[in-house]
Write a structure and sequence with these properties.
There is one protein chain. The chain has helices at residues 2-16, 22-46, 51-71, 75-98, 104-117, 122-145, 154-176. It has 178 residues and is mostly helical.
Amino acid sequence: MSIPLSVLVGLGGVLAFQETILIFLVPATVLSLVFGALTSLKDLKTRRVPDAYTLPWTAGLVAALVLTAAILPEGGAMLGQTALLAAAHTGFYLLLLVCKATSMGDVKLSVPLGLLIAPFGAGPLLWAVALAAATGLVHGLVLKKRGHKSYPAAPHMVVAGLFVTTALVLTELSQAFA
């Protein structure tokens, strides 16, 4: 227990003296791991994405974004970009809902995932959507062949978002320690 704790304290010390997006990314990733896992497991079991998971997740990410925007010199611009891209991400899922290609649960889930990835630009957001779509399509085809009428998209969306976020964390950490 003391080794992981000392690593976290050391990383926290480094982050305290860095003016990088890591100030947002590390706590946002931890928050997203917890709520993403809960959401994914619930969707796998019940085909539901509960507000009890998406709302606190979204609130935590908004708080982390506002704090980061207050700390970073370019924070205001980052906040504006994040709001615009996260809204576009959610708008895309709303369009899928209108076309009956997804459910309201996936639209709700697109909000925290958009907030998590959007600070890094449109590219990472597009990669996460493409990865979720590709893995979801394969899983959906397998389930359809087995006679299921629906499939859980949340695990694919969460894993894709966290995969992209992990790549961003590793990139930022390598630059912070260089």
